[in-house]
Amino acid sequence: MTRDQLTEKILDIKRRNGWTWKHITAEIGGMSPVLVVGALLGQMKLVKPLAAKAAALFGLSAEEQAMLNEVPYRGTAMPPTDPLIYRFYEMVMVNGPAWKALIEEEFGDGIMSAIDFDIDIERLPNPKGDRVKITMSGKFLPYKYYGNEQGIPEYGFKEE
Asked: Which residues contact 64 (CB under 8 A, 6 or more apart)?
């Protein structure tokens, strides 16, 4: 079985049982629903205790459970073709240069981690149509200025 086949099996069981992601993530627990769903879709891994919970919930074999604990090959072809995912790509293409400038002005020469990272998704009722609120928080990682001479900063933190 491939990881893609396991994802399809999980989605088939989810459909057959009429489960929601909210139900599934409540049953598995242990970490952010975004990470649990990401793992079940093949983009993240579940630690062993959570892989065991997922395997019990979905009735998976020991081999399939082990597959949930493996580090996956992450990502998809670019640009994405799914309209919702493409909108995120579009947000980065259009707003990315401004986000970069503002983050660097505030923090210095570096990046926002996508590994040491939190994300929360919530629904905001609105009379003109409900809104999606996404809150992201990533650790600032300054570039290291290796080979730096005496008096030259080692990292790209904002210079005062």
From this structure: 1, 6, 9, 55
Global confidence as pTM: 0.83
What does each C-alpha distance from 14 to 8, 9, 57, 64 come to in angstroms?
Answer: 10, 9, 10, 16
137 catalytic per annotation:
no
In this structure, what token pair is assigned to residue 84? 């919702």
Its CATH architecture, for the domain 3-68, is: Orthogonal Bundle (1.10)
Provide the pLDDT for residue 76. 84
The CATH fold assigned to 83-142 is: Cyanate Lyase; Chain: A, domain 2 (3.30.1160)
Note if 113 is an active site residue.
yes
Catalytically annotated residue among 63, 74, 113, 154: 113
Marked catalytic residue, from 63, 70, 90, 154 = 90
Quick one: pLDDT at residue 160?
82
